[in-house]
Amino acid sequence: MEKAAEPREQPQAQKRARGQNKGRPHMKPNHYDKNRLCPSVVQESAAQCFFGDRCRFLHDVGRYLETKPADLGPCCVLFKTYGRCPYGVTCRFAGAHLGPEGQNLVQEEVVQAPPVRNSLDKVLQQQLRKRKVGFERAEQALRQLGKGHLPGPTPPATVPEVTGADSAPGQDNCDAQQAPQGLSTRTTPSSPKQTCGSLTDEDIVRLRPCEKRQLDISGKLYLAPLTTCGNLPFRRICKRFGADVTCGEMAVCTNLLQGQTSEWALLKRHQCEDIFGVQLEGAFPDTMTKCAELLNRTIEVDFVDINVGCPIDLVYKKGGGCALMNRSTKFQQIVRGMNQVLDVPLTVKIRTGVQERVNLAHRLLPELRDWGAALVTLHGRSREQRYTKLADWQYIKQCVTAASPMPLFGNGDILSYEDANRAMHTGVAGVMIARGALLKPWLFTEIKEQRHWDISSSERLDILRDFTHYGLEHWGSDTQGVEKTRRFLLEWLSFLCRYVPVGLLERLPQKINERPPYYLGRDYLETLMASQKAVDWIRIRCPGTEALGVEGVLGRGGPGLRPDSAPQPPSSQ
Questions:
Q1: DSSP E strands, 294-372
Q2: By C-alpha distance, which of 310, 298, 307, 292 is closest to 269?
Q3: Residue 232: which H helix or E strand, with range?
Q4: Residue 52 confidence (pLDDT)
Q5: Nearest to 35 by CA among 97, 106, 90
């Protein structure tokens, strides 16, 4: 009777799923971590592994070779270009540079250092992680901004003393002072220091605003900073086709201040990039000003750009990107503070506004000119609009007058030399090209030569081959580097497939907002490149020859990255 009196339990309603889906399939490949060779063995270091028996990586080369996948090809790009492959036995093209006993061969007559600058120094990274880096110039500028008046002269920059514990074994004081960790470590300017070469007064006498290096890029073709796709290999492709100015991908200032390796990799610069800048994203004056001072002393750039155009929610809701257009006080402090600590010009990239029918750029441009910006790039769309409508070049024309005499670059919907000519007639100092370069990187050549280039499928295949070579040089030729190169190549192919060859168009030029129709190319290779399925992209190769495309150069995707993991538009078959 007592059991019968107990109320029957009501069935619980299914709980609504909220938050992050932690059970989702992760795209990051991690299968290469299972049988990974210890870096001390890969680098053939004479010293033993620092971790000893606690090391979680393999030290037996024979055991590693038993599980290593087969080589992807007979030629190693790194060995052929630089005379030595730093990945040794782990290289996926190791057969090209391994001796009979498994030793890593070296071509002494070809050996040269990789032509990439702005790498993160290990000592600096350790100091950033331990928060032992001082920012005297940034702190003084922020104090003056907090009091409500303009920043004044800042104290001279000091050269840190590297102690024996922080410096590498066998490194003398001369090399230590030339290391990129040139940030203050609370040393006094009067302390004696050893110098290398001639003594200058650059660290004592600060540059006045009128003495700052000028940025004169009027009339030049500016490749936009493209997140994910605007990597160093892609920028090398665009430089080869005529891009004049390049800019690194958007880097988050807080991640740079924490010394994150992945974020610092976005700042790397190839020697072919003669006019190069980096783009920073942040929401607060303290972090942005400190990051500007950090980059000013550690990397080589021609200008620093502030991202005030990023529309994604992850950035906008934290107060960065487009949100700064509605936070004029913080925006002013960021521009003034960064301009005070930088020795290179400061540029800004903005949109027309946040809401579609509320334009803000024409009011901000005169203020940016007074705050110290050397150049502003205006994207003719609002954050709310995204890519649903065409860029408003008539509004950009109005903003040219508001920004004068400060140069204004225009950006939006440029896919042919006719589009670039119409943009220049609005009075802008130059044009920035973004999606147009992703669809056809030879657009820079078309603009400079004022013609339509009916590029063949074999020429486009050569571009893909060069990208894979540049990618292996940049990300590495081991399994992890090959996976990254494949991933970014597939990401780029999701834009390249939207290009329609000039010889097949009924009317010229192709418009960037028009969806390309389904068509058969003039050969099988051109048809594969027009497909919107990633399964077709990995089969790209020259007919009648060995595989030369994605599958031939990089092999098939591993279990961590399948062909169907790339963006999947509707199939054209």
A1: 303-308, 346-351
A2: 298
A3: helix 232-240
A4: 83
A5: 90
Comparing C-alpha atoms, which of 314, 319, 259 is closest to residue 132?
A: 259
Nearest to 513 by CA among 426, 398, 385, 394: 385
Q: Which amino acid makes up residue 229?
A: C
* Contact between 45 and 38 (Cβ < 8 Å): no
Listed range (4-13, 118-127, 466-475) with the worst mean pLDDT: 4-13
| Model confidence pLDDT, tens digit, residues 198-255 | 555 555 555 565 567 778 899 999 999 999 999 999 999 999 999 999 999 999 999 9
The angle at the Cα of 314, spanning 296 to 561, to the nearest 5 degrees, equals: 90
Q: Which DSSP helix (H) or strand (E) runs through 256?
A: helix 253-257
b/e map 40-73, b = 16+ CB within 10 Å: bbbeeeeeeeeeeeeeebbeebeebeeebeeebb
Tell me phi and psi for residue 288, to 5 degrees.
-70, -40
Whole-angstrom distance, CA of residue 494 vs CA of residue 499: 10
352 exposure class (CB count in 10 Å sphere: 0-12, 13-18, 19+):
buried
Tokens 């290391």, residue?
179
Q: Is 87 left (phi over 0), alpha (psi -120 to 50) or beta?
A: alpha
Distances (CA, A) of 277 to 73, 95, 302, 345: 36, 38, 6, 10
Degrees (nearest 5) of the Cα angle 382, 256, 302? 70
- The token pair that represents 447 in the structure block: 């603009």
Residue 494's identity, in one-letter code, is S
* CA-CA-CA-CA torsion sign (248, 384, 392, 503): positive
Q: Are 255 and 263 in contact (CB under 8 A)?
A: yes
Angle (CA) 376-377-383 rounded to 5° is: 120
Comparing CA positions, the residue from 245, 277, 273, 243 lying closest to residue 437 is: 243
Q: What is the DSSP letter of 150?
A: -
Reported as type and span, the H/E element at residue 222 is: strand 221-223
Cβ contact 563:557 at 8 Å: yes
Catalytic residue among 310, 322, 399, 497: 310
Give the separation between CA 156 and CA 205, rounded to whole angstroms. 7
Burial of residue 494 (CB within 10 Å: 0-12, 13-18, 19+) is middle
Q: What is the distance between the alpha carbons of residues 324 and 319, in angstroms, rounded to a whole number?
A: 6
Reported as a pLDDT band with limits 50, 70 and 90, residue 126 is: very high
Rounded (5°) CA angle 524-528-532: 150
Q: How many residues does the chain have?
A: 573
Asked whether the predicted pLDDT for residue 267 surpasses 70, the reply is yes
Structure tokens at 555: 């092999």
Report how far residue 435's alpha carbon sits from residue 6's, in angstroms, rounded to the nearest whole number.
68
% of the chain surpassing 70 pLDDT? 77
Query: pLDDT tens-digit profile of 18-28?
Result: 666 667 665 55
Phi/psi of residue 517, nearest 5 degrees = -75, 165
Structure tokens that stand for 135 in this block: 């920012």
Q: Which two tokens stand for residue 269?
A: 């610069």
Phi, psi of 82 (to 5 degrees): -110, 0
Whether 310 sits among the annotated catalytic residues: the reply is yes
